[in-house]
Amino acid sequence: MELKEYLKIFKENAKLFVFVIILIVAGSFIYFAVKPISYSASLALNITRSGVQQTVDYRYDDFYRLQADEKFAETVVEWLQNPRTAVDVYAKAGINPDSLSLRQLSKSFASEKLSSQIVSVSFSAKDENSARKISDAISEIISSNTELLNKNQNENTWFEIVAQAPVIVRDNVGALIIFLASLAVGIFLGFWIVMIKHYLK
After folding, report:
1. pLDDT above 70 covers what percent of the chain?
2. pLDDT band at 60 (very low <50, low <70, confident <90, very high)
3. What are phi and psi of 157, to 5 degrees?
4. How confident is the model at residue 200 (pLDDT cuts 50, 70, 90)?
5. Is 106 strand, coil or helix?
6. Residues 190/10, Cβ–Cβ less than 8 Å
7. Cα(23)–Cα(201) distance, rounded to whole angstroms?
8. Three-state SS for 100?
9. How far is it, in rounded angstroms, from Cα 15 to Cα 152?
């Protein structure tokens, strides 16, 4: 099929094509207008030690200690991806997690090891107050888990978690981004709807 034939098809179905685009664009703006306000939060967990091991040996610039910190940071990341941790955090924050599935619980917190001693945690909340409660709960639960590991240690050089103040921002999508994205989707759907109508005709 040549280009002029495509143009002829779209000329005959111009109203339908434009209607689909307007419908998608308008629907997108309505969706974001009525969508409940949500907040995104980011929390940094610093891994440190509760003491310093006294030794006369050369410590290779604490190379082995940094290796241990890095492995523990990976453990913290795994904790935050575990549904049990999510349930404990929500309970501590006073939020009922019963409506969430096991899969949703495991994806409640996006955690990432930024370095051997820093783990970043990000999540969403319905309001700023809830975000702060969840941040405090994450710090308390991870610290509690760490203390359980420390309990049977004979040395006072085990791990300790220090949480920074969370960064909380309101989720906003720019009008231009909504328009461009919905316009692209509208053109795509409009094209195929017109082609399907022509095929069925």
Report:
1. 88
2. very low
3. -115, 25
4. confident
5. helix
6. no
7. 23
8. coil
9. 74
Q: Is the dihedral of CA 129, 130, 135, 139 positive or negative?
A: positive
Bridge-based pairing state of the strands 159-163 and 39-49: antiparallel
Residue type, 141: I
Phi, psi angle pair for 136, to nearest 5°? -65, -40
For residue 130, the model assigns a pLDDT of 93
What separation in angstroms does the CA of 64 have from each of 35, 50, 156, 180?
Answer: 50, 16, 17, 51
Q: Where are the alpha helices (DSSP H) in the chain?
A: 3-12, 14-34, 63-80, 83-93, 102-106, 128-150, 175-200
pTM (predicted TM-score): 0.69
Q: How far is C-alpha 72 from the chain's CA centre?
A: 22
68 has pLDDT over 80: no
Tell me the domains of the chain and their CATH numbers: 3-35+177-200 (no CATH), 39-170 (3.30.70)
- 197: Cβ contacts below 8 Å, ≥ 6 apart: 13, 16
What is the per-residue pLDDT across 104-139, written as a single tens digit (0 to 9) for each? 999 999 999 998 889 999 999 988 999 999 999 999
Tokens of 201: 């005709």
Closest CA to 146 of 63, 79, 87: 79
